[in-house]
Amino acid sequence: MLKTVALTPADFNRWAEHMNRQIAESGRDGRPFFSPMEAIEFASIERRARFENGLAKPVFEPTWLRMWAIEGPDACLIAHLDLSGSNIPTEQHRATLGIGVEEVFLRQGYGRKLMVQAIEFAQHNHIEWLDLSVFSENKAAICLYLSLGFEEVGRRNDRFRIFGRSVDDVTMTLRLKG
Ligand SMILES: CC(C)(COP(=O)(O)OP(=O)(O)OC[C@H]1O[C@@H](n2cnc3c(N)ncnc32)[C@H](O)[C@@H]1OP(=O)(O)O)[C@@H](O)C(=O)NCCC(=O)NCCS
User: Considering the entire predicted model, what is its pTM?
Assistant: First the structure.
């Protein structure tokens, strides 16, 4: 199995390359959509600033960020998971989670490996809730989240129209304490 690495501000370029590859797979060749963006470029000045600033902040400081990735051949990243804190100071007991594995590496346990690592990090840092959004058609992701104890807490039908197709958005959350 390939190894997990915790990303640092120096990893921006290889992270952006992976994100560009991975998000381009959304809705491709009959796969479900998993991103609301029809076109996106991750290697931008704004994203670099958010990446570098967020990773440098302590957990619980608004807009903090932590990322883990699976390192593939040639030090390329093939999967990522990000945890981020809100920009609102009164929401710092929660974190928002995002995840993606490149298609060639699906169903090899990397998604679960990253999720378990993020949950352990959150527990260790006394974060009390993990939140995420997932499209209702994304059965693979929903199965993974349900298997780890996430519950559906809300749904916005017809939230996005991606290339003209209506997509329902589900909010899921995991209670870590209490
Ligand atoms: C969701 C995702 C992260 C799962 O990653 P993965 O590495 O393929 O998942 P794993 O191999 O670790 O499998 C973990 C669990 O996910 C679920 N799962 C994964 N693929 C599945 C599929 N095609 N159908 C049903 N369940 C699936 C299963 O519960 C599986 O557990 P099991 O192997 O014990 O049955 C991956 O499909 C992905 O990155 N998709 C594209 C991006 C995306 O959807 N991101 C999430 C947006 S909210």
Answer: 0.97
Give residue 139 CA to ligand 1 midpoint distance, Å: 8
The answer to whether the beta carbons of residues 95 and 84 sit under 8 Å apart is yes
pLDDT in tens, 53-87: 999 999 999 999 999 999 998 999 999 999 999 99
Q: How confident is the model at residue 169 (pLDDT cuts 50, 70, 90)?
A: very high
Catalogue all structural domains in the chain, each as residue range(s) with its CATH number: 3-128 (3.40.630.30)
CA angle (24, 37, 106) in 5-degree steps: 40
Which position has the token pair 């990893």?
11
How many other C-beta atoms are found inside a 10 Å radius of the C-beta of residue 152?
A: 14
Strand 165-175 and strand 151-162: pairing? antiparallel
**Ligand 1: which of 29, 108, 144, 162 to mutate, most ligand atoms within 8 Å of CB?**
144
H/E segment holding residue 40: none
Can you tell me which atom of ligand 1 is nearest the CA of 101? 39
Spell out which residues line ligand 1, taking CB within 6 angstroms: 34, 99-101, 106-112, 132, 134, 138-141, 143-144, 147
